[in-house]
Amino acid sequence: MEHSLSFRVRVAEVLRASAVFGSLSEIVLQALVGVMDEWRVHGGEELIREGAESDSILFVISGGLRVWRRDRNGRVLLYNQVQPGQSVGELGMILQQPRAQHVTALRDSRLALLSRQAYEQLLQRFPLELSQVFLKAVYDRMRNATDAVAVQGLAQTFALVPLHADPGVGPLAQELSLALSKLGRTAHLCQSPDGQQLLLNGELFTGQDWARLEDEHEFILYETPDRDCDWSRFALRQADQLIYVSAANQSPALTAVEQSLMGETGYAFKRHHLVLLHPSDQAEPVPPAPWHQGRDLERIYPLRRERRDDAERLARFLTGRAVGLVLGGGGARGFAHLGVLRALQECHIPVDLIGGNSMGALIGAQVACDLCLPEILRNTQKFAAGGERPTLPLISIVGGRRVERDLKRMFGERLIEGLWRPYFAAACNLTLGNTTVQDQGPLWRAVLASNSPAGLFPPVLLDGQLLVDGAILENVPVQAMRMRLGTPLERRRGNGRIIAIDVDVRENLSADPGLQRLTVMSTLKRMLSAKAPSSPSIADILYSAGHVGGLNQRFRTIAQADHYLEPPVADFSLMAYAKGADIAEVGYRYAMEKISQWDHHQTGH
User: Fold this and answer.
1) In the annotation, is 452 catalytic?
2) What pLDDT score was predicted for residue 543?
3) What pTM value is reported for the model?
4) Burial zone of 223 (CB within 10 Å; 0-12 exposed, 13-18 middle, 19+ buried)
5) Residues near 281 by Cβ (< 8 Å), separated by ≥ 6?
């Protein structure tokens, strides 16, 4: 540990900029800085052990720390991240209790250490001001104890780790660096071709002040070679997130590189991703399932080489800026989704994940297949015009065979895992009484289950369970999208942005007050003449019954979405499929007006 003038100057700078310690008067701040010692630690080094004596408070000057514990089964539970300008260890010192948690360095870090003796001496001189500021530090950390990623003050760091010789990390690093630079100031660090020098954004970098590098950038991307060397080990210590890279045609078996990393101190505190690189013209990605075996990955990203949009999608996922689009059901009114999608495209708002129910699942699946909007309109109108035959109503009113046949023709044997963007279709599971989110398996089957209203169509069977249209519980499956946007460490507050589109017009199902009971004759009269007393049909009754749950969940659904759009499509009937283009136009005009009011920084624009 050291105590130098330059160190004290740097500590004072960091504390003045701190949201907590910046409130100290200059006299108290200088007194605090004057009694602290410097401590430089390596990434992965354990600094505080649970149960140990609380003999110091640690202040982060550069780098970052992770607070964690183990549960009864030995699993690591990750808590908050301590970033520059923040402290840890105050509560134990104040209460004179043993350490309550472990603290490990996330990356090579520079710390300022305040000993118990120095703390008690300062407390005698400045009792009120010091007590207030340390209690505020404890309060702020406890309030955000389950946040997985610090929001401000700490550059996000990534390391690209090739799993095999020359999988194409260099070009990917360039594309990812450009994509990150659209989101914030980015430093791309790599070795020169001869391995003798370090380059920062293509220029020679002496590496004299890493702390300043973090101060001046929001993202730092470390490009490592396909061999073990000092630079690789240094980069991996600094990275909060490891991005393994492999050519998609390589063996999915665990590599020696990964096995070596798993033994490194601090490995469990990093986020882990896998990029599978495909040829730029490949139609479908390789199945990801074999690559999950033996790996604890947050997500697998199928990328095409030299595809800027793929690299930009990766950047948004890594930085918590991914955009999820949720499309609700509503019959022909669902054509409004196409208008909203057109507006999003024209406003350059990306769509990184797609989920839907019923009509939204059908349109969303085609979007996930990268079909253009006019083609989706034609496909959907043709599909809706097919009709269905009534059947003996032991299971349902219609047989559903035509719908199943045409969905198989539309999507073939394509799997949901065989899409470049994540997709899911929601369905109500009558067996379990909950929403089943279908995010793997045949695409046609997921869309069919989501488009099978209970009573009207037969349920779709999945391992003996009965799946029907998801509107019974949630017509706009925002909760499922929120779970997919949040990382495993961020389930409480989620991550990224959700745009939800609700086309399910709220209509009152009622009969004419003069009717004593509903009869076949009363309903036939209503079907033949608009002037006849109101008498709902079986289709009206089944539709309303199938949407009751979704309507009851509407307020919760709205609260979970960042942008909740309700295009004005009440003037179109559920069966107005011939007016698809007109409905889409209504959705487009409505969305353009709403988008103009958005904060586009939040949607990746």
Assistant:
1) no
2) 64
3) 0.84
4) buried
5) 304
